[in-house]
Amino acid sequence: MRLWFLAACLLVCCAKQRPVKTEAPQAFDITVTQKGFEPPRVEVAPGQKVVLRITRKAETCADAVDVQGDPVRHMLPMNATVEVKATAPASGELAFACPMQMVRGAIAVVGQ
Asked: pTM (2 decimals)?
């Protein structure tokens, strides 16, 4: 009996939580460092409105960010937080990158 209880506890504790879509935008803090965007990927539910709060902390080519499908280039001044709004697609990923496409990140859709 204890073995079953232990197995059930492990299953519940180790199960990966899937993002749930909410009406309010989901915000993520992203830092631009010498390593690139940190974190480089955020996971959301399909169709979730997202706000990326990006702060550039290092001199890199990522002095701006382009979001796939968004015609606006968002400039990233040093040590200032810039809010970039997007909506996650129904599936797949929505990419964002520096203008040279060398520093990349993504809003990844998980769950259905």
From this structure: 0.80
